[in-house]
Design goal:
Blueprint: H1 2-17, E1 21-30, E2 41-44, E3 47-50, E4 56-62, E5 68-72, E6 79-82, E7 89-94, E8 114-117, H2 119-124, H3 134-138, E9 144-145, E10 155-156, E11 164-168, E12 171-173, E13 177-178, E14 183-184, E15 191-197, E16 211-217, E17 226-231, E18 235-245, E19 249-258, H4 260-270, E20 276-292, E21 297-316, E22 328-352, E23 355-378, E24 384-408, E25 413-437, E26 442-449, E27 456-467, E28 471-484, E29 487-500, E30 506-517, E31 519-523, E32 532-536, E33 544-557, E34 561-578, E35 597-614, E36 619-633, E37 643-644, E38 651-660, E39 665-674, E40 678-679, E41 682-687, E42 690-693, E43 699-702, E44 711-714, E45 719-723, E46 729-730, E47 734-747, E48 750-759, E49 767-774, E50 788-794, E51 799-807
Parallel strand pairs: 1-7, 11-16
Antiparallel strand pairs: 1-4, 2-3, 2-5, 5-6, 8-15, 9-10, 11-12, 13-14, 15-16, 17-18, 17-51, 18-19, 19-20, 20-21, 21-22, 22-23, 23-24, 24-25, 25-26, 25-27, 27-28, 28-29, 29-30, 30-33, 31-32, 33-34, 34-35, 35-36, 36-37, 36-38, 38-39, 39-47, 40-46, 41-45, 42-43, 44-45, 47-48, 48-51, 49-50
């Protein structure tokens, strides 16, 4: 060990002493806006580096060999910088250059380990009702599945949405969807960069098993004021940004709001005898302030707030429900709301050309609540003679501290190290109810609360990177200490990434990742609104952990075509799920979440990914294909046998084509195909054997089967469907074609853009879900039991849309 340490130190000494190396560092920014440019490549002395997430770079140059740097970034003109030994801090500005004659080059976003999109690319892709969405763009890449029809959730290499670490300016986010997952909360006008990492995770990232989605907000134009507004079918939005003090302080402000509720309200007021009122709205607000203290110090403050509100009002006059002898009617109000809040502050500091620091402080929260109120109204007098209310909420809060450093030993060697701490507050569920009637002249109240849990996560990490012409590798270790009550968990997460480049056009990569996750999500139903609860790892529900191996190969054909093939194998431990059946002996009235779950589940996922793309010319696009198998296994489910997981979609095919007629007019198309998801179907219909009486006279049905292969899903009408095995059937295959036409024109005061979209061009009736229904005729014979058939519910037919955008 001492010899290894000695020769390592000797190597660094020789490498740095017998040359006239000088380290140059600084930022690369957009010349027009001063926005940081992430991923710009700096080349000098046969070495190259790229800018980090803050636009910072550091490169060591032998000044005896070269006196210049070349800076490149697709979409920008190449720039040559002359070096001076007495000026080691550089601020390099690149000029945007999207018009390059008759050839249009789109930014290369593909990598064996991660994907990235520019916001300009996302704006050109077809979308549901013209709403451009970050998450749906990422679904077009291999290894990333699309979920149910229209969903913006990400299922990365067999994982679930909660297994994605989603960061907005370094702060974690949880449920990031509107409209029951049809639209994400991320406003494209507020975003600077998007990166999805699916393997080869840098050591600084912890907490989740499947992927890292790192989104960075814009800093704002330091030089001039600019804005943008869009009018669409689903929502309208406005964005403003510019200098508060030129070249010193800038701001960004964006607001997006849905368009539904004004039309719903107008319809309710104008429609005669309308006994039902439905209203829905959502909004997103982003704000950011960026303060350039000096060439070495910058501070930025980010804010996000967004929520969904869903309301239903019903005036019930049906006397078959409300018995006429009571002479009353009901007025019922249902409401659901959910949303996120984020606030963060970051300080970046350059200690020297070799050492860069990032310090971040923040707070995030996610809240879901459901309310119901019922008023009993006397039909004659109009007086309220009774009422009842029920309220439910679940909430998670995070207080975050992050500190990390980039130390550039030289161009080939780099260290990244740091620590972070997150204090969580979980409220898994809180229920209250209240009822009153004039007859009883008193009030009945009930409440139930899950225990509020307050775990603490502390992380430390260290990563070493080596980069050369033929070989790159990253070796990292991420350590985590998780404390809940008096219990402490320790885990370590090694990360290995090796890239071998035998030629300039070939790249072979191997990665190994061990990851841990100290939270779980429990999906309560298939409701269109989010009915999930987030819970921390406990002694009963242990932290999840995963091992993933991946190997990939890519080849470039004259820089015009790219081919990427990769395979992966992943195992997951300590999964949890809801119980699928109850035994009489362990049925609990009003159980806690820990009493409703099965634990110690395992997962096995493996697959092959393929990506072929054309990056330049008028016609560009890519073909993405994934073959994957995804299994789960629980001792207490499916008789202990493995079963296909809910999102075991074996075949995923996505075709994307983009044709530019000129710099102002482009046609885009997306075709998606996915084999059917697995589902469970019953084998028999059976009478309920036993009823257990619960609180307030409610009944809980229970079936005890001799064969433990069977489990049941209850309905409380005296019968139940009995199932054999979990997910032993498949839904129909899914396929769809979308097209869009984007037409830009330079006007006197800005750029006007019309976008015309057609979603589901050939009107494919894809199944949103399947359901059983009795084929009972209108005049049924009560003595006859009619057959039950399986039907599909479809959600989106062909949908044309138009949106208007003006950038000034």
């Amino acid at each position: 060990m001492k010899k290894i340490l000695f020769f390592t130190i000797l190597y660094f000494f020789i490498n740095t002493s017998f040359s006239q190396n000088i380290t140059f560092s600084g930022y690369v920014t957009d010349a027009q806006t001063s926005e940081k440019l992430i991923g710009a490549v700096i080349i000098g002395d046969n070495n190259s580096v790229s800018t980090n997430e803050f636009g910072f770079f550091s490169i060591s140059i032998d000044t005896n060999k070269t006196k210049t740097l070349v800076v490149r970034l697709l979409g920008y003109s190449e720039k040559t910088v002359t070096l001076k030994s007495n000026s080691q801090i550089l601020n390099i500005q690149l000029q945007s250059n999207t018009n390059i004659g008759t050839v249009y080059i789109y930014a290369k976003r593909r990598n064996l380990d991660y994907y990235s999109f520019s916001t300009d690319e996302i704006k050109k892709l077809p979308s549901l009702t013209g709403e451009k969405d970050v998450m749906k763009s990422l679904q077009l890449m291999p290894g990333v599945q699309f979920g149910n029809e229209g969903s913006s959730d990400l299922y990365v290499r067999g994982g679930t949405p909660d297994q994605n670490l989603i960061l907005l300016d370094d702060m974690p986010m949880h449920f990031v969807s509107h409209l029951g997952s049809f639209v994400s909360i991320f406003d494209i006008n507020a975003i600077n960069s998007i990166k999805l990492i699916k393997n080869g995770f840098p050591a600084k990232y912890g907490s989740n098993l499947s992927s890292v989605l790192d989104i960075r907000l814009k800093d704002g134009n330091m030089n001039k004021f600019e804005g943008n507004f869009t009018i669409g079918v689903i929502s309208s939005k406005i964005s403003l940004n510019g200098p508060i003090i030129k070249n010193k302080i800038s701001f960004v402000f964006t607001l997006r709001r849905s368009n539904f509720d004004p039309f719903n309200w107008a319809y309710y007021k104008l429609a005669p005898n309308n006994e039902t009122f439905v209203n829905y709205k959502f909004y997103d607000l982003n704000a950011k302030f960026n303060y350039k203290i000096s060439n070495k110090d910058k501070i930025d403050i980010s804010f996000y707030g967004g929520a969904d509100y869903n309301k239903l009002k019903i005036f019930d006059t049906d006397e078959s429900i409300i018995l006429s002898k009571y002479n009353t009617r009901f007025k019922v109000n249902y409401s659901n709301s959910w949303g996120n809040y984020l606030n963060s502050a970051r300080w970046t500091h350059i200690y020297s050309p070799k050492l860069f620091q990032k310090l971040a402080l923040g707070y995030t929260s996610y809240l879901y609540q459901k309310n119901q109120s019922i008023k009993s109204i006397d039909k004659t007098s109009g007086n309220i003679v009774g009422f009842g209310t029920s309220n439910y909420l679940t909430k998670i809060q995070d207080f975050v501290l992050k500190l990390d450093y980039d130390y550039y030993i030289n161009t080939k060697h780099r260290l990244n190290f740091g620590l972070s701490s997150m204090y969580h507050i979980y409220n898994p569920g809180e229920f209250t109810s209240e009822a009153w009637t004039i007859k009883d002249a008193d009030t009945t109240k009930a409440s139930k609360s899950e225990s509020i849990l307050k775990p603490l996560d502390t992380d430390v990490f260290l990563e070493y990177s080596f980069n050369s012409e033929k070989l790159d590798f990253n070796l990292g270790i991420h350590g985590n200490i998780y404390i809940l009550d008096k219990k402490t968990w320790y885990n370590y997460q090694p990360r290995v990434k090796i890239q071998y480049k035998p030629t300039k056009n070939d790249n072979l990569t191997f990665t190994y990742d061990r990851t841990f996750q100290n939270l779980h999500i429990l999906t309560m139903s298939n409701s269109i609104v989010p009915a999930d609860i987030w819970v921390p790892a406990t002694e009963i529900a242990q932290p999840e952990n995963a091992h993933q191996f991946s190997i990939g190969y890519s080849h470039s054909f004259n820089r015009k075509y790219e081919l990427t093939v990769s395979g992966f194998y992943k195992t997951i431990n300590n999964l949890i799920d809801y119980k699928r059946y109850f035994y009489v002996t362990d049925t609990v009235i009003n159980p806690t979440w820990e009493q409703q779950i099965v634990t110690n589940g395992t997962g096995e996922i493996y697959g092959l990914e393929f990506l072929a793309e054309k990056n330049s010319g008028r016609f560009t696009g890519w073909i993405s294909y994934t073959y994957m198998k995804n299994f789960r296994k629980f001792k207490d489910l499916n008789n202990g046998e493995p079963y296909p997981f809910n999102y075991d979609r074996r075949h995923n095919l996505k075709l994307v084509a983009q044709f530019s007629f000129n710099k102002n007019l482009s046609l885009n198309a997306i075709f998606m195909f996915g084999s059917g998801y697995p589902l469970s179907l019953p084998i028999i219909k059976q009478n309920i054997v036993e009823l257990i009486e619960g609180e307030n006279g409610s009944n809980y049905g229970t079936i005890v089967n001799e064969n433990t292969n069977y489990y049941s899903e209850f309905n409380f009408e005296g019968t139940t469907y009995v199932f054999n095995k979990i997910n032993s059937y498949r839904m129909p295959a899914y396929h769809r074609l979308d097209i869009s036409l984007n037409w830009e024109k330079q006007k006197k005061r800005g750029i006007r853009t019309w976008t015309f979209c057609i979603y589901n061009v050939y009107n494919q009736q894809n199944a949103f879900f399947l359901f059983l229904e009795s084929d009972t005729p209108d005049f049924a014979d009560p003595n006859v039991e009619y057959p039950i058939s399986l039907y599909k519910f479809t959600l989106f037919p062909i949908i044309p849309s138009i949106s208007y955008n003006f950038k000034f």
